[in-house]
Design brief:
single chain, alpha+beta, 4 domains, 8-stranded antiparallel beta sheet, about 25% strand
Amino acid sequence: MNEPAHIGVAARLRIQQQAEQIQRSLDAIGAGRPGDAEPEMLRRSAVLQRRVGLPVQEAAREAPHSGAEKVWGQTIDFVDVAFLQRGAYAARAVARIVTRDGQGLGTGFMISPVLFLTNNHVIGSKADAADLLVEFDYERDLAGRPRVPTRFAFAPETCFLTNDQDDLDYTVLAVGGRLSGPGVLAGYSFLPISAARDKHQLGDHANIVQHPDGRMKEAVLRENQLVSRASTTLHYVADTEPGSSGSPVFNVLWQVIALHHWGSPHRDLLDQNGKQIAKTVNEGIRISAIVTDMNTRKSGLPAREREKITEAIAAGLDPQVVSSVESAPAVAHDASLGASVDVASDGTATWTIPLRVSVQLGGYPTRNGSPTPAQDAAPQPHADVAPSSTGEEARVQVDPDYGNRDGYQPDFLPGVAVPLPKPRGAAALRAVSVNTRPKAGRPKYELPYEHFSVVMHKKRRLACFTATNIDGRLAKSYDRSTGVIAAFHPGEEEADEAPEASELWFIDPRIPEEEQTPPALYAGQTAYDAQGAAIVDKRKADHANRIFQQGHLTRRQDPLWGPDDIVVRANADTFHVTNRSPQVGFFNMGKRKPGAEAAAHAGGTLYWRALEDFALNNAVADQARVSVFTGPIFDDENDIPWERGMPEMAGFKAPREYWKIVLRVEDGRLQATALSIDQTPLIDYVPEATLSEAALARVSFEKVKRYHVSIAELERRTALDFGAKVRGADTHQGGERREVASLSQLLSVPRAPSRRRR
């Protein structure tokens, strides 16, 4: 996230005021005597005592002569092997701050079991926090594969403390309920913070763990060196790009010494002689200053919030807690099994195989040092248990027992059986993914979920199509923010949600990962406004409208019908990556709130979801059943290359066109209406487009072409066989496809009288 202008102005001024100290430090570092950069003998003594374990008097005697070799041995490039283990443990506490459509805004880290620290310019208010999520494990594992991230909501109502001064710039807030992913908050470490003087001295190396530009978690090890110190800030230089807002800055013992909040462009600053400083100069807020300010400002908080701040500060004063980073938990890996075993500080052993099974070892010391009694493991809620209305359990959690999914049902519509579409011809059959756990009597290429099925294309790594059953009599809504399940009412679907506020997308274990799109594919896109400037606030509609979003093919609302436990399972199933496809923001929009920015879209015209909205609403109103087939049109020659710089995605292309068939029974007769929409006119606006005149112009949704097409044309263009019954029920009257501009134009069906309600 780009820092506000006033942050940069103030930081530059402070750095200019520290120019003499910065140059003195650079000279000492360049001469191979980094320890000489620290001018305060008392600080040198305290640091030496802490790191080497000397008695106070001996540390005081040695401090004036203690260069780096005294503290760390003959070379500062040699560190204890435990350095890496401690760093891995500390990194567990670091997380990415994201919008509800998955765009990274900054970094932060846990400072207690429930409190999270980041910059004020990243999260400045409770309202900001309500629109954002915190995402852990957005990183690669030892094999280089993306881990499955876990997302939590923020809980600013539980605790929120902030300071917007440019030389403090911090926010502390509580983390709330898990929304998605396999992790639990207690399973992540936290980093104790304190105002102690013995954590750093000038000339020291600093380490940073961060999500720069929203990327997967990265560590900058021993690249930065401390060069100056002011009352509330530290300055450190590097040869690399600036860090990520809200990242923790560590010393060599992996203690937090600063909260990163600003970095200069490379070689952008001058020394006191007007010469360029051949480094990137970064500024962080000293943790000691933040702790002092927290202690002062907590008095204005309600008692419960004040207590949480006090607990976080106390953790930094507790020697047992502080030493927890230095005695990081063991991590065992069994490559032959493709499994790992994590032994946490409370004795919880977690095997990833890839299912996660946790066992509490009785008598093992907990975080606070006291042993836990041997006892039976507490039962864990099953993934298909309906959440309560508290929001704590309102999360996306996939039921791993895929054998209980029946998928699309051919005999779902009254009086007529409509088989699942099938690939047409031997080549098309070879192109689809094979389910390694097929259901008896079903095609091997079908992936059944709750109330819908997916057929995947191996090479394209996207669904060929999805097939969904919708029961209007039993339709329900599921509020993802609260977990409340209620009767569905026409017109309310996703009205209050941002476009694809998708917590997490799951890999389906029934087909190879290399035949699916990885979770990181859509992260970190940058869009530009009409003036060519990067859109900094990724929550704005202009940003969402100009990026490829993770478009649901089977829409989240459609399979949500039946008993509550089935609704919860169906909701989670729609977040499998097999059900997503890259769609420009326009295609992926839900209903619009009156007066919202997205209302600039062409009102009254046919949106991508409009046909399905109409079918769903009328299915509910008429207590009817509807089936929907949806998918992309693959055109290898003309589709859009979209590899995102990821080697594993070489050759990946985003489809230009999508299609949908809505099936319903009217007056005892099957009716099939097909629609195709081309997103080509919007492709110029996506981030990977050059900054052309078209890319900078206001997005015009009127350019999008919508066609009522024949089933026969779709069969020809998709290499799918929809079956004789669907072809015979086609509402298209023959001839060429025809452009349509409204629902009434599309859904006027002369073959049979309609009983749909308007």
